[in-house]
Design a protein that fits this description.
The chain is an alpha/beta fold. It contains 4 helices and 4 strands; from the N terminus they run E-E-H-E-H-H-H-E. The longest helix is centred in the first third of the chain and has 13 residues.
Length: 106
């Protein structure tokens, strides 16, 4: 994992990394209080067969009504949602951890 530490912030390049493994490592670091920035979110890899992946995300995206639940379409929001799923985001420590995460395209 290509990481850089700048001013107490860890910058991670997601290029070529499997999304779930990257998300689990980042979630653990966030719970330890680190501030993390992920760049090149669109280049993270979701492992599996292409058709199955597209079908799964299409189904998740289309579920629900105008009231929700809502599933993101943009790559940086998909990465952030994946990491959020690995955090206790409804509790105080999870909310604090999620505020220390920034995800960018490119």
């Amino acid at each position: 994992m290509a990481t850089q530490k700048v001013d107490n912030v860890t910058i991670i390049d997601a290029t070529g990394h499997i999304l779930g493994r990257l998300a689990s490592i980042v979630a653990k670091r966030l719970l330890n209080g680190e501030r993390i920035i992920i760049v090149n979110a669109e280049k993270a890899i979701i492992s599996g067969k292409r058709e199955v992946i597209f079908e799964k995300y299409k189904q998740k995206r289309d579920i629900g009504s105008h009231r929700g639940p809502f599933f993101p379409r943009m790559p940086h929001l998909i990465v952030k949602r994946t990491i959020r799923g690995m955090l206790p985001y409804k509790q105080e420590k999870g909310k604090k951890a999620l505020k220390n995460l920034k995800v960018y395209i490119g």
